[in-house]
Design goal:
It is a single chain. By secondary structure, the protein is mostly helical. It has a domain of about 80 residues. Helix 1 crosses helix 2. The longest helix is centred in the middle third of the chain and has 39 residues.
């Protein structure tokens, strides 16, 4: 298990994570830092705990919006997905019987010529 130090709002936090997840965790800390900066820009500075709670609420709101969009997309998708599933997969192009007979004759001629060679 890896341990990394993250700096959020000027404070250092040492946290553990699975090996290989360090960059992901740093990126998530960057997301928190960005939201805290947005809150500060709006004049919302009133303590570290409050900033962290507001940042968490912003992230939760964004997740809620994304989940709602995903649910809406999934609800509208089944009709189109079912319609696509009902369409038969494209197979080989249909060959008219007369053309098939001509091709068969030609294949037999080629096979006979190869046997004589």
């Amino acid at each position: 298990m890896a341990q990394i130090s993250l700096k959020i709002n000027g404070y250092a936090y040492t946290v553990g994570c699975e090996d290989g997840q360090e960059d992901h965790l740093r990126a998530m800390a960057g997301e928190i830092e960005a939201r805290m900066a947005r809150i500060k820009a709006l004049g919302g500075q009133s303590g570290e705990s409050r900033l962290l709670v507001l940042a968490a609420l912003l992230m939760a709101d964004e997740l809620h919006d994304m989940a709602t969009e995903l649910t809406d997309a999934q609800r509208s998708r089944p009709a189109s997905a079912d319609a696509l599933a009902a369409v038969p997969a494209p197979g080989p192009p249909a060959i008219e019987p007369a053309r098939l007979a001509t091709l068969a004759d030609r294949a037999e001629s080629i096979a006979a010529a190869m046997e004589q060679a």
